[in-house]
């Protein structure tokens, strides 16, 4: 039993304790309560898997309830998309409910609260209400309408309901405590006037309940036992309970709110508002664009329900926020597709190969294994002929050491086929290779059992017979953002970090077995990655989406850039040890080239801040980041810049001081910022103990003249 307890996450532990303390198991009830104001994204998948997973574990019903209380942002399109996503993920709800089903119920409870002296109509402007509520460190004060009579409040509330007042003229507020340390308890709004058409109730209502009021009361109506939400609602729990206190009946189940950490995934954004902006500004091609983190986008790209469920299971349920690496999601996908995706051959960037000693007009069918991970997948026949396509990058005229692809004079094996040897090439007027001539070993066919077929060669290439190839449009998708935290940087717009290479389109050639592929079918293009047939496909043209590569290119790139930073720091130490200026220039230029090639904004920012300290190597490195990296002056925090320059000018190293002076002199700083170092430079100029060099003196003089 102890072992089983350790495997339970904290919400399961709470439920187990509730059951042990006498809560009836048949009273357990959960719900997934999306707002239909956008498409679900991968962050919602974590909540979905949690809620429906609890339902399956405890054989308890899970409702799908749409918290549709804001007609200004909600649409039937979103409702339909959410239902489709849930079913695709493999979950089925017990009942389909809507907060709008309860509008009359909620209105009646609001009237009761007015009669009980627990709510009142406020007629202040939103600005006045915000000022009156105070700040986190300053208590609020009672507003001028807080003590309206019950009769006046009832009359005004009925007028609001009847549409007698314009939007923004009145709101219904709970009467709680304007001095509460929890600002949400300072007379929160319950109802506001909205003359908007609702996707389900039409124009029947002119007032709509606020989320905090409708959400908890809807849980109560549905007799939800455990109301599970994300950590940003921790401060809302007190208000959730207060609203329940106004209506609770001892004979019914009282819902209890529990919070877990939401999913934070790097290299993307999870805000519905920002995702909507991407759609509305046509930066992406709709909510289901395969670059989007929406469930519909992931589905279209070729993700599987099993991979997403496995991902959610792997990251677990916790109370503390953390950031999950996108690579883990891709790992779960590769792991799933590796088991189920048939292997086929496709060439994305073709170059023609002619097998000169293969008989003209001859064709043969070669046996190809469909999936080596699945014995039951069997084999297929792949046509082979004298002229084939291979990938352009799989050939070099002259091979460097450890090159395991085709080159002149060297042999490779064609997958499922023969061993070929590079003989010659044909080029166009610009020197581009248009055709490669090769010879083949007739006795070397794979699987033939001949001695030649057992011969080992350096590499194996995929290929497609030109006479049998199917032309296709292939959309190569990559991550939408180049920064791991695109919406976390002060003074930067998340759109500044768009990946300009997130979509490239190529004309590819596929083996003929894909002629009957249907929308949604998934394949592994051997040596290239996993791909899926897109919904844009027609009988005349097949469109294929790249789902994910065979290897994690971003992880490799991240490691490479991190290693480049670390190696540059080591080179900085050499800078101080070499004897000549020429050697130092070589080292500085090499470091500069390395830094200029790093695109990871967060890595550069973190490296810059980390190296603002009293170590001379660190200070010099931070100054070189300032000089050579792709970051603009506006990307740096002014306080960090000031600290770096000040510490550098005070350094005992003349190399550090000179680089700081050159940066201030050369870079496009604000004149007022530059002027703030005038006194520091004058002190340095007048301090003989610093042993300033002639170049330092020269540029200090130039800088002072510039000021």
TrEMBL record:
GO annotation, biological process: glutaminyl-tRNA aminoacylation
Taxonomic superkingdom: Bacteria
Gene3D superfamilies membership: HUPs (3.40.50.620), Ribosomal Protein L25, Chain P (2.40.240.10)
Protein name in the entry: Glutamine--tRNA ligase
Glutamyl/glutaminyl-tRNA synthetase class Ib anti-codon binding domain mapped to chain residues: 341-441
Region Disordered, residue ranges: 125-145
Glutamyl/glutaminyl-tRNA synthetase class Ib catalytic domain ranges (all copies): 27-338
Lineage: Bacteria, Pseudomonadati, Bacteroidota, Flavobacteriia, Flavobacteriales
PANTHER family with a match to the protein in the record: GLUTAMATE--TRNA LIGASE, GLUTAMINE-TRNA LIGASE
Family, per entry: Belongs to the class-I aminoacyl-tRNA synthetase family.
MF-aspect GO terms: ATP binding; glutamine-tRNA ligase activity
Chemical reaction(s) catalysed: tRNA(Gln) + L-glutamine + ATP = L-glutaminyl-tRNA(Gln) + AMP + diphosphate
Entry coiled-coil feature ranges: none
Keywords: Aminoacyl-tRNA synthetase, ATP-binding, Cytoplasm, Ligase, Nucleotide-binding, Protein biosynthesis
EC number: 6.1.1.18
A cellular component term, taken from the record's GO annotations: cytosol
Organism: Flavobacterium faecale
Top-level enzyme category: ligase
InterPro entries in the cross-refs: aa-tRNA-synth_I_CS (IPR001412), Gln-tRNA-synth (IPR004514), Gln/Glu-tRNA_Ligase (IPR050132), Glu/Gln-tRNA-synth (IPR000924), Glu/Gln-tRNA-synth_Ib_cat-dom (IPR020058), Glu/Gln-tRNA-synth_Ib_codon-bd (IPR020059), Rbsml_bL25/Gln-tRNA_synth_N (IPR020056), Ribosomal_bL25/Gln-tRNA_synth (IPR011035)
Spans through the membrane: none
Chain ranges of the tRNA synthetases class I (E and Q) anti-codon binding domain: 460-534
